Amino acid sequence: MKVKIAALYLPLVGIILDALPQLYDFTAVSGKSRTSGSDEEQDGPSAINQNVALAIAGNHFNLKTSGTMLSSLPYKQYNMLNADTTRNLMICFLWIMKNADQSLIRKWIADLPSMQLNRILDLLFICVSCFEYKGKQSSDKVSTQVLQKSRDVKARLEEALLRGEGARGEMMRRRTPGNDRFPGLNENLRWKKEQTHWRQANEKSDKTKAELDQEALISGNLATEANLIILDMQENIIQASSALDCKDSLLGGVLRVLVNSLSCDQSTTYLTHCFATLRALIAKFGDLLFEEEVEQCADLCQRVLHHCSSSMDTTRSQACATLYLLMRFSFGATSNFARVKMQVTMSLASLVGKAPDFNEEHLRRSLRTILAYSEEDTAMQTTPFPTQVEELLCNLNSILYDTVKMREFQEDPEMLMDLMYRIAKSYQTSPDLRLTWLQNMAEKHTKKKCYTEAAMCLVHAAALVAEYLSMLEDHSYLPVGSVSFQNISSNVLEESAVSDDTLSPDEDGVCSGRYFTESGLVGLLEQAAELFSTGGLYETVNEVYKLVIPILEAHRDFRKLTSTHDKLQKAFDNIINKDHKRMFGTYFRVGFYGSKFGDLDEQEFVYKEPAITKLPEISHRLEGFYGQCFGAEFVEVIKDSTPVDKTKLDPNKAYIQITFVEPYFDEYEMKDRVTYFEKNFNLRRFMYTTPFTLEGRPRGELHEQYRRNTVLTTMHAFPYIKTRISVIQKEEFVLTPMEVAIEDMKKKTLQLAVAINQEPPDAKMLQMVLQGSVGATVNQGPLEVAQVFLAEIPADPKLYRHHNKLRLCFKEFIMRCGEAVEKNKRLITADQREYQQELKKNYNKLKENLRPMIERKIPELYKPIFRVESQKRDSFHRSSFRKCETQLSQGS
């Protein structure tokens, strides 16, 4: 019976297809029509298409020839249908498609041209959004909405009555065309009480919770049934498209409808069948889909990955199987599924950031399921596929962990930047995403006024762009990848595109953003130069513009060249005028101890803080922040820098050890680090000292004062794209008391040399250093050090070398003191002559006291290592070769 009824209504299908441009667009975000903002049907005649007339006459599905379609008519020649009318037409269409003779439906689809098949797919796309399950509304919410609507209508009625017009006046006003002063008051409201909003509202509010539940159940069943019919229609179209030449466009349309259905709320029953259809589509037409429908495949990855986080076990298992097949087929088709890797990775980033119903634990389970599939897939074990899947899933787990953690650490700037850094690092093979995250990091740094780090983020972004531009274009004026950026920072080499998963920009369609162009590269470098200038790193500005100028010259952009050279001149002027007045970062070693820190437990970092940051400042900041996290009573700052013994710590507390550190250089490095900037740039090694005595006290007398020098090596060089870098190596050197004295005297001598040679001269600085060197009130000053270690020659021969080295240090020290006193004499004013005389007196006294100790040498050090006995050259005592040969000839 249903088949016969459906046959009677077959002409309606043609009418609906021709009316496609008039249908209400349920996919629009605003909920309004695609081409009209009105929800109401408009009056006026509607043109009937020739095909529709033929269909009404009994020529069913004769849609091969196309007359004047409604979509080609001007906007005002056809009317838009409202949501209810469109929904009713959709229900009729789907009912006919389900109950009509299926052999007739398949024959009809097979005979249709591709244009009409695409129209059917457009109609199915709207159907999916039309019958999306909206969920169950509570009766309280409905009652609230109804009450509000009733109040609005009541207010309009009162306003109409208070206007003072009678029934005649109101009737005349209604008959006047174009009078819409009160659009909410139509004739139905006054004269047909059974159709007023009052009556409708009261009826709706009378519904019980059971009735609302029943409506929700019917709505859910309708959504499932409608989508299953839509799925059957798509499978019929897929079968029909196999014989057509233009099946690529039809497959794209089918995939678009499937992706749209996955983005809507669906039942488990439908999702099971939908994923089965998807897997069949991938298995049969995978090559075509991966080559022609790149954007659709990216959307598909995102939707499937979203269902991998579903709370329903059945849905998760279906989604996992589909995603695994997607990866497996892409590998089989291209022997490298780099693009699918990128799409899945990008999908995860979007999913975690935007999806409100995202569940981390369920997604982790799905990733483990996919890993199990790859391990048990015997056919792929001889290929690199299982290894690549494992790497991808490991990367996804890392991104998932870091992105979720970001929500927890919004108030911890260092941890937040660490997480952003790790996410950017995980996108190493997805240049577009990595570039985006580097720019996000630059923005965060700029807000915190960390301009140098923000500039470094943009330099890394520019190096990434240069790396991919070098693959596309072979121009001599372009940077040769990230190698060209080494003079700016040694860290930039990590942007090198040397991975096996690196995507080729010309083949895979990546790097399509506006920054992956020559102008984009110049823009990133110019932004970096501005930030370096703001941060006071003027020397680096010069290095950045060395990369920009060749590009501008090649493009003959003389206007930009003019402004670039102006900026360079300002940078060089600042170097000349502000060289020693600039203040770079202050560095601290921070160690975390305690299980409360989680991943940070027993980790050590070097923090870069703003210039002139004191130890109490960073200590107060970190103690306050972690006190809020764990409770102030559970956080304790370790005051000294001695090695931490975890066995002596309270397991219920979180301990932070903070130590001031200074950049450390070997002697050979100091030859290349001449300027103040060079001594504060590209830093990887830092040192801090820990004084101690053999008795366990931190301080003692000079002869018992030992020192432990600890040299830390960080993973990257400062400045970097983040303000804290983990420590990867620690070296310790214990200095004996005499070695401690040697280091102290070297330091004092260096301070004197710097103060003497400073240009322009600084009298205050010179006098301060002099006072600390020759002042009579200096405790444990140079004289006491000399009396302790140089008064007598040590009994242990092993100390001879140290004794002599300290003696030479004092010799140079007293010479520098004399130079400083003489220079101070030339700098002082008339009112400081007495002060100068006092300094001279103290200097002479110190010199006289040190003289006997400085001049005393250890004789053993000046003896030759081995004795060379001199012999006179006596040719009579030696046999020449000629004489030897003569003797040999005579003997023979």
Automatic annotation (TrEMBL):
It comes from the Eukaryota. Pfam families: DHR-2_Lobe_A, DHR-2_Lobe_B, DHR-2_Lobe_C. One of its GO terms (biological process) is small GTPase-mediated signal transduction. Keywords: Guanine-nucleotide releasing factor, Signal. GO terms for molecular function: guanyl-nucleotide exchange factor activity. The keyword Cytoplasm does not apply. The keyword Secreted does not apply. Residues 1-21 form the signal peptide. Residues 425-859 form the DOCKER domain. CDD domains: DHR2_DOCK8. GO terms for cellular component: cell leading edge. Belongs to the DOCK family. This is DOCKER domain-containing protein.
